[in-house]
Amino acid sequence: MLTEERYEYILAQLKKYGLVKSQDLMHYLDCSESTIRRDLALLEETGELTRIHGGAKKVYRIDEELSISEKASINVQEKEEIAKFASSLIEENDTIYLDAGTTTLYLIPYLKNKNIQVVTNGIQHAVLLADQQTKTILLGGNIKAKTKAIIGITTTSQLENYRFNKCFLGINGIDAEFGYTTPDVEEAAVKRQAHLHSSKTFILADKSKFNKVSFVKICELEDAVIVTQGLDSATHKSYFSKTTIKEAKI
User: Fold this and answer.
1) 245: which strand partners?
2) 118 forms bridges with which residues in the sheet?
3) Of the candidates 31, 54, 121, 139, which lies 20 to 30 Å from 17 by C-alpha distance?
4) Residue 198: what pLDDT?
5) CB 14 within 8 A of CB 51
6) Helices assigned H by DSSP within 59-144
7) Is 209 helix (H, G, I), strand (E, B) or coil?
8) Which tens digits make up the pLDDT trace of 200-239?
9) Strand locations in 69-196, DSSP E?
10) The pLDDT of residue 59
11) Are strands 225-228 and 244-247 parallel, antiparallel or unpaired?
């Protein structure tokens, strides 16, 4: 096998699983330990991975947060399907928490005429919910200009008094090792508080959020149910062992 082909295989395995073992690479690639050691060393020099005892792990890059308008134009069809499926999880008389974010925004039309109460920290979410006569509480606090989410100590203090049947969160990163993450400390605190005060938490995430890590951890992978669409079998397998994945159907 050519060197470039070995590199491609190693990086593909890291992308799927986050970790590779030297023994497994030797077996699949049918090459010596010294060859694998050399391959991993060269890939480490280029910043593609970090060598560990017995193999290598993926290098995690902290992504910059996009604005709400930038997020809104990404994976629109997929977000629509996820939101429609998520709405089927909501029952009559539920009190739900609806997180600020573009995927959760797509959930709102499917809540029309449901006998539910919604608490949200999304300004746009609250306006749309009010327009369709859905009973809504908008949390108070500071407005984050980039995402139009309401955050801060006032927000988390208000959440202390609320309890939810279900919580629907948007997310920036999902990783088998590091769990659910988001870039902003205060926004993470709001998400975490809502999660802790909910009977069940659902993470609404398109496939671009998998195998990514942001700055602040919200909770462990197994603490919530992922609602997504279109995962490849390898990605599904690597996450299924730690949590439940509900896949939206077209």
Assistant:
1) 226
2) 96, 136
3) 31
4) 98
5) no
6) 68-72, 76-87, 102-105, 123-131
7) helix
8) 999 999 988 988 889 999 999 999 999 998 777 656 656 6
9) 95-98, 117-120, 135-138, 142-144, 149-151, 164-170, 173-175, 179-182
10) 75
11) parallel
- DSSP sequence for 76-95: HHHHHHHHHHHHTT--TT-E
167: nearest Cα among 222, 208, 125, 120: 120
- Each as own residue / partner, the long-range contacts of residues 145-149 (CB below 8 Å, 24 or more positions apart, any chain) are 146/65, 146/67, 146/68, 147/65, 147/67, 147/68, 147/100, 147/101, 147/184, 147/187, 148/68, 148/100, 148/122, 148/123, 148/124, 149/100, 149/101, 149/121, 149/122, 149/123, 149/187, 149/190
Q: What residue type is 181 in one-letter code?
A: T
Q: Are 178 and 213 in contact (CB under 8 A)?
A: yes
Task: Name the stretches of the chain with pLDDT < 50.
Answer: 250
Q: What is the dihedral of CA 83, 87, 89, 90, to 10 degrees?
A: 140
Q: Residue 89 and residue 165: Cα distance in Å, rounded?
A: 11
Q: b/e per residue, 14-31, with b = 16+ CB within 10 A? A: bebbbbbebeebbeebee
The CA distance from 185 to 13, in Å, is: 31
Q: Which residues, including other chains, have CB under 8 Å from residue 189's CB and lie 6 or more apart?
A: 151, 156
Question: Would you call 200 exposed, middle or buried from its count of C-beta atoms within 10 A (0-12, 13-18, 19+)?
Answer: middle
Among 108, 67, 74, 75, smallest CA distance to 90 is for 108
Token representation of residue 104: 């959760």
- DSSP SS3 for 1: coil
Distance of alpha carbon 5 from alpha carbon 16, whole angstroms: 17
Using only C-alpha atoms, what is the Rg of the chain?
20
